[in-house]
Every structure is written in structure tokens, then in C-alpha cells.
Design goal:
With about 220 residues, this protein is mainly α. It has helices at about 5-10, 25-30, 35-60, 65-90, 90-95, 110-115, 125-155, 175-200, 215-224, and strands at about 155, 160. It has one domain (about 5-224). A two-stranded antiparallel sheet has the order 1-2.
Length: about 220
């Protein structure tokens, strides 16, 4: 696959939120606004890029039996950098995101890309993959955050856009609203993908059931 293919698949075909349904903790918890979604997405993108880079560079030097702990150490190092920078320069956003910044360490998207892609490919492909996945994750968070902010508060990026007569649906900025918004967006994504496949003359395959048998990490481990 070309570098453009490695980059673009994370935005649509293998979008980590709307296609692979990964990283649900931050997706559901921090998307009460576009700003929160953007902040979490950019932080995760930086960690994805840098961890993919380091894992790709070190893949021939890390013993297979300790590769997962080694990857976690690499990821945790860059998460610490993000946490300190956001605390020092973007304090209000850091305060809003709270514990979910340190929890990037255990985000399955980042560990999954390190194990399934960066540990098997060169630097440029790993960077393209990390950037594409990061942008796809960021866009997903912003779309869900925008939907919840508009319907739940009548604002976008803090600016009122719905007019004074708009009755906000407060449920959208509460935890149930995250599940409702994500469900509608997942359904819309699947419908668009089905129409695209039909127009292209392809056989549409709905997303597989998310269970242990379909986990890419286990399959990669067997391959090794």
C-alpha cells in the first residue's frame, strides 16, 4: 500500500471510532464540546505519531517477549510530555479533560497501531499510518462533540448559533447523550459506506461483531 493509502485509511475505511469502534472511553467522556474533542484528538495524534516513530525505529531491537511492556513505556513517555505541556500552556483545557489525558497511555488505538503496524513497517509508513489514524480520531471526536454541543447547549465553540428560542436538549451533554449521538453517527457512517460500496459495484460487508475473536492484536500475535 502507498503512503497515501496508509494515511487515508484511518480517516474513512478504518476510522478508529466510526469503523473500528475503538477508544470509546475518551470518545464518550470528553465530547461534550468541539473544543474538548479537538484537544483530546490532537493530544492523541501527537502520541500516535511519536510512538509509531519510535516503535518503528526500535522494532528490530525490542525482544518479542517484552514488546508490549516496551511499547507501553514508549507511549507513556510521550503521554507525559503531552500532559505537562497542556498543563503548562493550556491549563483550562487540561483541567476540562482531566484524567483522560494520562489515560491516553492505555488507549487501545495507540497500542494497537504500535503492535499491528509500526512494529512491522518502516518509519515513513508508520508516520503516515499514525497521522491518518490521529486525524480520523480527531475528526470523529469533533463531529460527536459538535453534535452534542449544538443540541445540548445551542452553541458551537462557545458561540450561540441556535437562537434564543432554541430549547436545548440537556440530555445530549449528559452521559446518555454520548451513547445516543455515537449510535446515530455509527448508523450514518454504515449507511454511507453501504451506498459507496453499491455505487462502486463492491460487496458491502457490515462491521464485524466486536468480540475477542476479531481482535487484530491476537491475530498478529498468532502470526508471530
Amino acid at each position: 500500500m502507498s503512503l497515501m493509502g496508509d494515511f487515508s485509511k484511518g480517516i474513512w475505511k478504518e476510522n478508529p471510532v466510526f469503523r473500528l469502534v475503538l477508544g470509546m472511553c475518551p470518545v464518550l467522556a470528553v465530547t461534550t464540546s468541539v473544543e474538548n474533542g479537538l484537544g483530546m484528538g490532537l493530544a492523541s495524534t501527537f502520541v500516535l505519531l511519536m510512538s509509531n516513530l519510535m516503535v518503528s525505529l526500535l522494532r528490530n531491537f525490542i525482544p518479542k517477549k517484552v514488546r508490549i511492556p516496551a511499547y507501553i513505556v514508549v507511549i507513556a513517555s510521550f503521554v507525559t510530555v503531552v500532559d505537562l505541556v497542556m498543563h503548562g500552556f493550556f491549563y483550562e483545557l487540561h483541567k476540562s479533560l482531566g484524567l483522560f489525558i494520562p489515560l491516553i497511555v492505555v488507549n487501545c488505538i495507540i497500542l494497537g497501531r504500535a503492535e499491528a503496524f509500526a512494529s512491522r513497517n518502516g518509519v515513513m509508513r508508520s508516520l503516515a499510518d499514525g497521522l491518518g489514524m490521529g486525524i480520523g480520531f480527531t475528526l470523529s471526536l469533533m463531529i460527536l462533540g459538535g453534535l452534542r454541543e449544538i443540541l445540548g447547549s445551542g452553541t458551537l465553540l462557545g458561540w450561540p448559533i441556535m437562537g434564543p428560542s432554541f430549547p436545548p436538549f440537556l440530555v445530549m451533554i449528559l452521559p446518555p447523550g454520548a451513547f445516543l449521538g455515537l449510535g446515530f453517527l455509527l448508523a450514518g457512517m454504515n449507511k454511507l459506506e453501504e451506498r459507496r460500496a453499491i455505487r462502486a459495484g463492491e460487496t458491502y460487508e457490515p462491521p464485524r461483531e466486536m468480540d475477542c475473536g476479531n481482535c487484530v492484536l491476537c491475530k498478529m500475535d498468532v502470526d508471530r
